[in-house]
What does this fold into?
Amino acid sequence: MEKQFEILEKLIEKEGVILALIVRKTGSTPRSPGTFMLITKDKIYGTISGGVEEYQAIKKARSLIDEKKSELVHYSLDNRKAGDLGMVCGGENDVYFRYFGKKDYKLVKEINEKINKNDNLTLIYDIETSNIEITEDEKIKNKLIDDKYFYLNLKQKGIVYVFGAGHVSQALVPVLIYLGFDVTVIDDRKEFLSKDKFSSKVILKNLDFKNMDIEITNSDYCVIMTRGHKYDEICIRYALKNANPRYIGCMGSSKKANLVKENLLKDNYNIENLYLPVGIDINSETPEEIAISVVAQMIKIKNGDW
It folds into this structure.
């Protein structure tokens, strides 16, 4: 989401933009409140649903750009209408179309500056006045209050730090890149750190696991799959030393998990975000299958459904 606001900042210097935001949903619709997309006269960035509703939303947004105004619109797709369109889902969405123009540039710039400084940020949209308030209070997330105020929670995207550059990492990283994550791979074996094995978009760091200098934040993800148990635990301890990352996943057996967790608790580490063994249980065996199980788990954490 935060990248969308960077895009918005660049766009409104030149043209009007509509931010189409789902503020309420009932029934079976594809996306949840808090989902939004950007729409200009000739481009779209993101998606709120796809299909006929999104087509109608884009059409509506472009008419509002011409009028330079904001509006709340209700969309209903009951089962009969859905069937007529060859769709199986039916439900209702309220979408708030918020117009952004040059006069909003200072506001959007401030939002981006605050996103970069805070792990969590909440924008309170006043649907009646189109006013937007910025707050660091995250008690209310992605919810409409009193049919007037929508609380949009923004989280820093975070970096995925992959410790270890072996076969599973090589299968995992391309999927993470495809999903839009920023990835840094760390290994003490220089010969394993090759753009050919990973991607030109990946940062590769040849570091001694016992002597690392990486700034990990609470917004980041750590996936630990080094060549040995000893190094895995070193990396877990390093990740937890100065932060509480959103996600720490580590490969290992149940026996290893019990031993490592016992050691960490003994030394008063907070392991609430430690997933060991890593990944969702799908009976994965190959590096590629393990990678999918890890990515699935990370997506659930990122989207707050765990």
Summary: Confidence is low (pLDDT under 50) at residues 82-86. The first strand starts at residue 17 and ends at 27. Residues 51-67 form the longest helix (17 residues). Helices lie at 2-11, 51-67, 79-84, 105-117, 167-178, 229-241, 254-266, 287-302.
